[in-house]
Amino acid sequence: MKNNxxxxxxxxxxxxxxxxxxxxxxxxxxxxxxxxxxxxxxxPSWMREFRLKALEVYxxxxxxxxxxxxxxxxxxxxxxxxxxxxxxxxxxxDVPEDIKNTFDKLGIPEAEKKSLAGVGAQYDSxxxxxxxxxxxxxQGVIYxxxxxxxxxxxxxxxxxxxxxxxxxxxxxVALHGAVWSGGSFVYVPKGVxxxxxxxxxxxxxxxxxxxxxxxxIIVEEGASLHFIEGCSAPKYNKVNLHAGCVELYVKDNAYLxxxxxxxxxxxxLNLNTKKALVGKNATMEWVSGSFGSKxxxxxxxxxxxxxxxxxxxxxxxxxxxxxNLDTGFKVVHNAPKTSSVVNAKSISKNGGACxxxxxxxxNENAKNSKCSVSCESLMLDDISRSDTIPVSDIRxxxxxxxxxxxxxxxxxxxxxxxxSRGLSEExxxxxxxxxxxxxxxxxxxxxxxxxMNNLINLELEGQVG
Length: 465
Prior knowledge:
Blueprint: H1 4-7, H2 11-14, E1 23-24, H3 31-40, H4 45-60, E2 82-83, H5 97-106, H6 108-115, E3 118-123, E4 126-132, H7 134-138, E5 142-145, H8 146-152, H9 154-160, H10 171-179, E6 184-188, E7 198-203, E8 210-211, E9 214-219, E10 224-232, E11 240-242, E12 245-250, E13 255-264, E14 268-270, E15 273-278, E16 283-292, E17 295-298, E18 301-304, E19 310-319, E20 324-333, E21 339-348, E22 353-362, E23 369-379, E24 385-394, E25 399-409, H11 412-420, H12 425-441, H13 446-461
Parallel strand pairs: 3-7, 6-9, 7-10, 8-11, 9-12, 10-13, 11-14, 12-15, 13-16, 14-17, 15-18, 16-19, 17-20, 18-20, 19-21, 20-22, 21-23, 22-24, 23-25
Antiparallel strand pairs: 1-2, 3-4, 5-6
Helix pairs in contact: 3-4, 4-10, 8-9, 11-12, 12-13
């Protein structure tokens, strides 16, 4: 009888369609290219000007040198905008067959039918499908693609767009500001509780290209939302780039959970930026799984601006051969009685490298705040690597703060014990790893927990990418 690890096949993620598109910008990053993207997208003048200013910032900033080596990234070999041969559709039946088949195989329509209040699907640089249950619209909830939001809700977008994540933050945020395309816009009015999750899925198909989707979520006072984001790409032998941006505004007494599984192929450089501003007595929860990608630099951030604000981060990274996943979390306590809990895990095998990099800053005015950080790393062999680089900047004595980190190899004694109970060595290792990952998977909706367990099985088998 086959075990679970043998039965799962990575092929569903590596399906790739012929590189057909309606329009593909020439490679590189120049003023002419930015103006052409803006023209193709029918930007209002304020957005065109924003893009050009972001390009100036991009050209003035250097590549980060403190993390993984990014020297193989050559922007002259990356096409920053690819428009597929379809428009935005509100009926799944209207999506072109090849694109629809891709999302069908990834399980998106099925998930929508079973457990989601709304779905957005992006293919290369454009959102190709969007829908939301009618009852949410009647409550004033807005869930649409970013381009529609720029046109139809300009005042809300202008007030929030890249205010949470300014273009000066780093070079790839500035790049994003210049070439962003696609993404999701969510607005939940005051007091509205969205009980069923919304989901966006981002699929990159075109080789030697980038995906730069922008996600902007505003949860007004006393409202609540669970938003799920998934992403994947097939494997090519040339570098692809992902430099998306996620901006989350959680107003006073509001609640937002943001769950994501990033499952890029191993030719992808994943240089994503995510940040949340959290108001008085509001709660921001992050659940994150990082799989795939050749290099990841990803550090979600919560800024606790209101008294009593809370944030919790639960994340896992899995690095195999040829992967360098540099991930972590940042939190800034800017008000009294704020609290943060960080629970980060990483697994490395076959020479993969995982780095946990974090920042905790508790400012002088954040008295009576609490922060707890736990970082655990599991190495499955003696050629893999795991590093923990925490920065703790505590500026007041009136706090409770704890940090614990553990790095270890998988226990031979535990494997021996499980084998003595009749498991094969492979099944014993898989059980240990799944148990290690359980605190993350239990926080995900059932379908996504199953996907994460499948990805773990694939990584253990060494088939991913």
